[in-house]
């Protein structure tokens, strides 16, 4: 169950539809339900089949956030939560790189929410650049996926002052 107060709806709406038309940061006091209410309803609203919604959290909070999102969104409104850790030492081939892109596109289509840590984003980008001198096909797929992600993602940062 989730109880949503009118002020939380207003904050979520402002986050989803930034009046400035660009990125925004909202600083709230403790106890207003940022993590437990506002973040999940904002993620659900943004995951509208048009963009990839990425919730970015610090490593110590990742499992707690995953459990919270599953409880609030997957169990209640059937929104899939995808936890996708990615590290640079991975050695991926072109098929695996395409699979990552398909996962992102499926998340968009189904309204799924991707849960990441800050350290998962940069290694994917760096791996694409690293592949420049190795496998041209892998590099091409990864760079295209990075570009697609930049154009089609909306990030929600929890505890943004700590990231």
How would you explain this protein's 3D organization?
The chain has 163 residues and is α/β, with parallel strands linked by helices. It has a domain at 49-162. 53% of the residues lie in helices and 10% in strands. The protein has helices spanning 6-16, 34-46, 62-77, 94-110, 118-130, 136-152; strands at 52-56, 81-83, 113-116, 153-157. Strand 2 (81-83), helix 4 (94-110) and strand 3 form a beta-alpha-beta unit. It is elongated and about 55 Å long. The protein starts with 5 loop residues before the first helix and ends in a 6-residue tail after the last strand.
Q: What is the number of E strands?
A: 4
Q: Which structural class fits the helix and strand makeup?
A: alpha/beta
Write down the overall mean pLDDT.
Answer: 83
Number of DSSP helices? Answer: 6
Distance between the termini: 30 Å
Strand order of the largest sheet: 2-3-1-4
In what range is the share of β-strand residues? 5-15%
What is the makeup of the main sheet?
Answer: 4 strands, parallel
Helix content: 40-55%
SSE string, helix = H, strand = E?
HHEHEHEHHE
Shape: elongated
Low-confidence spans: pLDDT under 50, at least 5 residues? none
Rg over CA atoms, rounded to whole Å, is 16 Å
């Amino acid at each position: 169950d989730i109880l949503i107060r009118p002020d939380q709806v207003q904050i979520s709406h402002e986050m989803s539809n930034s009046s400035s038309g660009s990125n925004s940061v909202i600083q709230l006091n403790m106890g207003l339900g940022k993590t437990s209410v506002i973040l999940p309803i904002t993620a659900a609203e943004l995951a509208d089949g048009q963009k990839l919604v990425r919730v970015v959290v610090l490593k110590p909070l990742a499992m707690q956030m995953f459990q919270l999102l599953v409880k609030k969104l997957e169990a209640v409104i059937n929104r899939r939560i995808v936890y996708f850790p990615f590290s640079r030492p991975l050695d991926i081939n072109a098929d695996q790189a395409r699979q990552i892109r398909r996962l992102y596109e499926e998340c968009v289509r189904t309204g799924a929410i991707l849960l990441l840590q800050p350290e998962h984003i940069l290694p994917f980008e760096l791996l694409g650049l690293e592949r420049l001198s190795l496998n041209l096909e892998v590099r091409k797929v990864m760079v295209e996926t990075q570009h697609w992600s930049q154009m089609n993602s909306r990030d929600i940062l929890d505890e943004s002052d700590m990231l």
